[in-house]
Target: Pyridoxal phosphate homeostasis protein
Amino acid sequence: MSALPSIARQKELLSNYESIAKVVSETAKKYVQHKVNLVAVSKLKPSSDIMGLYNEGVRHFGENYVQELVTKSQELPKDIKWHFIGTLQTDKCKILAKQISNLYAVETIDSLKKCKKLNSLRKEIDGDVINVYLQINTSDEPQKSGYSIVESERSLIYESVEFLLSEECSHLNFQGLMTIGSIGESFKDENEDFTRLVNLKNELNEKYSLDLQTSMGMSNDFEDAIKKGSSSVRVGSSIFGSRPPKN
Model:
């Protein structure tokens, strides 16, 4: 089991988390009719930090790097609900599917191939069903992963949705859509990236009779994301503080 943080660090983490959770709760209560899940993004932070929040009842944690997630999942309690929120490479699907028994969600699926691979590999070990989100590149930035929302490429989204809803897909649960808004949009009064994701969600809900969730909003824009209807926000630096550079 991982060591605990110092008493001072524990108090700092809890204060930060409770402050963010209060804003999340109050914003959700004011603008939407559903509970908003707060995922504490712990990438590049020690397992002791996670234990500091775990001991206060926090269970949803997000990680960006596969090997870091594997290491933490092995040394931390098995009832943690891990969210993989980093870029998903096809060759990493095997590690996620087979080595992390308590993998709660993969939020960065961006191809039918990855849907099929993650499902088949999880099926091989008859592991628990993994919740998945399709990542949508709502800002159409070439450096970002995710399905394009341009009309000519919508069929790629539909193909993945239809696989996720098929009987063949026994070990993935299609939970919703995810986006990372552009930096420029996060400073505007009206974040068009979030609006585009909600519009796509509504389209898919109607087309396939679904009730999808949305994962959008991070430390600098989660309040606006909730106002737009986000079901889940991913907050890291506002809880854990600035991160060291990745080696």
Observations:
- The longest helix spans residues 7-31.
- Residues 7-238 form a domain with the TIM Barrel fold (CATH 3.20.20.10).
- Strands lie at 37-41, 60-63, 81-84, 103-109, 130-135, 172-178, 213-215, 232-235.
- The chain has a mean pLDDT of 94.
